[in-house]
């Protein structure tokens, strides 16, 4: 592709932002000028790109008319503050924060619903969903034609990197303290995270559901175009640095054909199906990879209409950064 595009990445010093820049280079994305932006606290840092160290600048001072596309890889407040400025300057955007409503910036997972990009108008506003929703959508997409899906029940075992670099540092610190038989004083987490499981990620509302759980349900329904689909979800915090894992139960209205299910998963893009008798793990398989690993595909113990699967993927790479870059690749190929 001879044409190049000037691009900005907001949140360039975060775990997702840094990985996004890395993937742009790995996939030879046609970047002309790359502008790395962050808060005033992170300005002045540098991030490597194509053999150079690019200096990170303050987003407050940036002129969005300089770029054609911007990735928002910071928090919702940053998106809400700067997305209007970007679109007013004629700049298309891909938001990873979940801040924008679906009617303004539809949720897109290329393996599941890339066709909705064709109906957008410039400047484009697109959302890349949470890593959990993206991972599940990749696996659900090839199965919808084989199941009369009635309900999804899932437990999401989330890596601490879902909460940013500070959470990764805290898990490392706690682990070191415990291994060296030193007193543990939790900081980022409200209790011991190392060698432990926490029953929720974030604070629950009055009904007991966290923002992350509600976001996952909302985004998965949007991506799969199933607004009435019943979804039960529990997000737990696992003592893992990178790589989310999911225990998923899909309830159909009729008996599940495992042969067809396995064949569909084997042929689907973005999926690595692990052979029967084995199972994938985040550390041994998913971290650093560009696919969702699927294993333990089986029907229910006493319900032939129930399908159980185990999934794992790199939440920062596959679930967040790569999904956003894949959306951008589709935009520049057909639309920009």
Poorly predicted tracts of residues: none
Query: Which topology of the largest domain does CATH recognise?
Result: Dihydrodipicolinate Reductase, domain 2
CATH superfamily descriptor of the largest domain: Dihydrodipicolinate Reductase, domain 2
CATH class of the largest domain reads: Alpha Beta
CATH architecture designation of the largest domain? 2-Layer Sandwich
How much of the sequence lies in strands comes to 15-25%
Following the backbone from N to C, one meets helices and strands in this order, namely EHEEEEHEHEHEHHEEHEHEEH
Average pLDDT, to the nearest integer?
A: 95
Q: Strand arrangement, largest sheet?
A: 3-4-2-1-5-6-7
What features would you highlight for this structure?
9 helices; 6-stranded mixed sheet; 2 domains; 7-stranded mixed sheet; Rossmann fold; 13 strands; alpha/beta; Dihydrodipicolinate Reductase, domain 2; about 325 residues
